[in-house]
Amino acid sequence: MPCFHRLLSSPCAASAARRAFAAAVLGLALPAAVPAARAQQALPPAPACCAEPSGVVRLVASASAEVAPDRAVATFAAVRQGLDVAALNTQVAGLLDAAVKAARAVPGVEVRTGGFQTSPHDKVVAGQVQQDGWTVRAQLTVKSADFAALGRLAAQLAQTLQVQGTGTEMSAALQAREQARLTQMAIARYRAQALAAARDFGYAGYTLREVDVGALQGAAPTPRPMFRAMAAPSMEAPGIPIEAGLQTLSVTVAGTVQLQR
After folding, report:
1. What is the pTM of this model?
2. I need a labelling partner for 72 at 20 to 30 A (CA). Which of 95, 157, 239, 241 fits?
3. What are the tens digits of pLDDT across the range 173-201?
């Protein structure tokens, strides 16, 4: 026992003893760890759990139709330029008020105002930017289901206002009616495709897995820009022609079906 104590009291001997003890511990642990690692590597890969089942078919069907818009639209601007911004605002407000009264006097005309703007314009003098006056602008939009009446009103308003553009749009009632009709057609075509796919692949029928019925497409308004300078007043101004034309509307149905034996 005294001899053993003397051996450990030496720094070199103590360090050697610690190294020997660590080597002995590692030697015991490694043989147990290696088989476990090998066993983990030998495990088979996990089976795929998200594979799509057989007999699933993706389908897309659509229905479309050419439809004439049922509302005429015309947009105008009351514009004045000058140095006295207060006077310009008064003039534009007067022009707009008179135009609104004239539009409301026509049965079935919808009137909307907006976009009242006052903006400065500048000029360069001797390399310096100087304010050169003001531009005051206000917007007026009129709509009606009577294309001819709106065309006559547009010609009347064009005597004092600038015509920004004319166009057509579909009323909410017309859009709802066409969406219902085209949706029925698209669904019928989708079902026909599903039945044909089941028959062609040797199945007895199908069930719906998922289906998406799209919104009505193609019903956006169709503006036609038409900038005209202000003309002198004329009591015999001809009506501005506004043609409805045709717009292509469509509805699409897409999804997947499960074919059944």
Report:
1. 0.68
2. 95
3. 999 999 999 999 999 999 999 999 999 99
